[in-house]
Amino acid sequence: MxxxxxxxxxxxxxxxxxxxxKIQKDIEEIIHYFEILKEVDTNGIEPYIYMKGAHLxxxxxxxxxxxxxxxxxxxxxxxxxxxxxxxRIMGE
Amino acid sequence: xxxxxxxxxxxxxxIKSGEISVKEVMKSYIENINKKESKIKxxxxxxxxxxxxxxxxxxxMREKNGVLFGVPFAVKDNINVLNTETTAxxxxxxxxxSPYDATxxxxxxxxxxxxxxxxxxxxFAMGSSTENSAFFPTHNPVNVEYVPGxxxxxxxxxxKSKEVLAALGSxxxxxxxxxxxxxGIVGLKPTYGLVSRYGLIAFSSSLDQIGPLARNVEDAAVLxxxxxxxxxxxxxxxxIEKKDYTALLGKEIKGKKIGIIKEITDFDLQQEIxxxxxxxxxxxxxxxxxxIEVSIPHLKYALPVYYIIAPSEASANLARFDxxxxxxxxEGNNLKETYQLTRTEGFxxxxxxxxxxxxxxxxxxxxxxxxxxxxxxxxxxxNEFENAFKKVDALLLPTTATTAFKIxxxxxxxxxxxxDIFTIPVNLAGLPAISIPSGNDKxxxxxxxxxxxxxxxxxxxxxxxxSIENGG
Lengths: 92, 472
Fold this sequence. Notes:
The complex is a heterodimer.
Chain A lengths: L3 H7 L8 H16 L34 H5 L19
Chain B lengths: L7 H9 L5 H19 L2 E4 L1 H13 L11 E5 L26 H8 L3 E6 L33 H8 L5 E5 L6 H7 L2 E4 L20 E5 L2 H11 L29 E5 L9 H16 L3 E5 L7 H16 L17 H12 L2 H14 L5 H24 L2 E5 L14 H5 L6 H6 L3 E8 L5 E8 L4 H14 L1
Parallel strand pairs in B: 2-3, 2-4, 7-8, 7-9
Antiparallel strand pairs in B: 1-3, 4-6, 5-6, 5-10, 9-11, 10-11
């Protein structure tokens, strides 16, 4: 059994009753299916994280125009002072 | 002449020679939209007025530049188009207006294509049928009782029903190729790193790739010419020489070696798909290509590997949807509560399921057993492909094991996940692959054949696909 509440908390989700049982059951079934990977011997194998041909690069240190503030403002949450407005997080 | 029957190069040639106007083109396509869209539901947003205005603008231009000049075009709704609503098929992004163009969109616009709308998709590209859209399902134009595939189901349906000439989709585990196969069109997933992901809403960053959906192989090659190329705004973009992907189309494939994956016989294939595969082998023999058997012994592990890696990356990528910067917001008593309320209401069931699976696979105590293990098996699979490509120029296999299924038919998540069994290995290895139409089954539903190419050898992949398309 997975600790669904702990996972919900980590993912900043709060499943509704009814939804919770179904999703937990699905997830347990899916995770059970992952067990098949135990058959594979991965001793000495490096994880595949960086794709073939890809290598990280640095951009030139140049001043470039960023996104237009007027365009950004169409998404209501950018306040007049160029900051994002959030609920108070200190002093609770 | 039926304008909507013309290929990209034919259409653009006719416009440039003055034989037809862009407005006439647009009107022909709008006629199809008016006739079909209410049944197909390919689009989340359609802007016909703007498309007509743009058509008139192009007609007034003295210099008619661009290889997509006047081409009616659609873009999947997880790709940013400046000043349009981009929702990725999710309620959580309802109301989000893109403040910029994705690189691929910028390139398509530069060639003077006309973007008439944003297409429906499974929410955040998580699905294989477009039924997971938060808004409505899209219907397969071949038979509206069936799904068009997914997650780029809206793009595939719009191209098939001739509501547009071509479209962009994104492919994380088959999301361009599977709907192309289900709808009977061509879908191309380029090599990882060839097309910039800048402006594509990230699902699984090591797997996502933007690709074209088109009527035929030539159109797909023309589109790849437009969208491929290095972009410093995508840190996984690969800087390789610019190529002409149409250059080898029509050149004979005599002597090319095509591999059939032995392990395919371990899977349950629909009878007509087996026959279509055999027929394609006959075509290759006729074209004097050499068909040989190769082995990818760990093929069957691709599905569990994918369903660990993709949700893990998604759980990180989708953390940004918290109600603070854009889209939906549900205010709680404090910030954490605002996050929770917004995300719980904004995400659909499948997205929540995958975020939770990914969060679990990355969580302390489970990371090694799931995410790390999957990443290692991923390398084994990629190595097996690399070995296979020492012997062959391309691999041939069906795109899917069955043709399209009915809307509402697949019930459990695992049942739905299994749809992508033949497309997923390609993304895990970062390879390019194309799905081309290969006849119909008894019910009249399209069958798709998939060709997998070598890394960054799209010109050769397209050459072989073109020969099969025209040599049968």
